């Protein structure tokens, strides 16, 4: 699951993910939550998922908008780990 995905694989994966798009060698999604505390709770939940997967997104918090960026730094691009964690993030933020 840590092999780099092809452009075609990435395009197919992005069709299945909510709101994600490619930014260079990463995938990214921004989500606006109802309040700042909701944004922090979402980040806390994603932090737990990331720790469990030993795969950590870059996270930017701006008031109630959170941007998640995923890439597998050790492989220099997008792998199945990124796609998998993106799906988990989607499930997490949709429940906030």
How would you portray this structure in words?
The protein has 96 residues and is an alpha+beta fold. It has a single domain (7-94), classed as 2-Layer Sandwich (Gyrase A, domain 2), CATH 3.30.1360.20. The protein is built from three helices and four strands; from the N terminus they run αββαββα. A four-stranded antiparallel β-sheet has the order 1-2-4-3, with helices on one face. The radius of gyration is 13 Å and the shape is globular. Keywords: Lyase. Its EC number is 4.2.1.96.
| Structure classification | alpha+beta
CATH architecture verdict: 2-Layer Sandwich
What Rg is obtained from the alpha carbons, in whole angstroms? 13 Å
Largest sheet, in brief, is: 4 strands, antiparallel
SSE arrangement, N to C: HEEHEEH
Text of the CATH class:
Alpha Beta
Low-confidence stretches: none
**Overall mean pLDDT:** 95
**Total count of domains:** 1
How far is the N terminus from the C terminus?
29 Å
Shape category: globular
CATH topology annotation: Gyrase A, domain 2
Strand order of the largest sheet: 1-2-4-3
Please give the count of helices. Answer: 3
Helix content: 40-55%
Instruction: Say which CATH homologous superfamily is assigned.
Output: Transcriptional coactivator/pterin dehydratase
Beta content: 15-25%
Per DSSP E runs of 2 or more residues, the count of β-strands stands at 4
GO molecular function, one term: 4-alpha-hydroxytetrahydrobiopterin dehydratase activity
Protein name: Putative pterin-4-alpha-carbinolamine dehydratase
EC number: 4.2.1.96
Catalytic activity: (4aS,6R)-4a-hydroxy-L-erythro-5,6,7,8-tetrahydrobiopterin = (6R)-L-erythro-6,7-dihydrobiopterin + H2O
């Amino acid at each position: 699951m840590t092999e780099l995905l092809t452009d075609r694989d990435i395009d197919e994966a992005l069709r299945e993910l909510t709101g994600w798009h490619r930014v260079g060698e990463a995938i990214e999604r921004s989500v606006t939550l109802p309040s700042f505390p909701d944004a922090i709770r979402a980040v806390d939940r994603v932090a737990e998922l990331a720790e469990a997967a030993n795969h950590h997104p870059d996270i930017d918090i701006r008031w109630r908008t959170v941007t998640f960026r995923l890439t597998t730094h050790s492989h220099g691009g997008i792998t199945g780990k990124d796609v998998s964690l993106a799906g988990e993030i989607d499930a997490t933020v949709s429940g906030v």
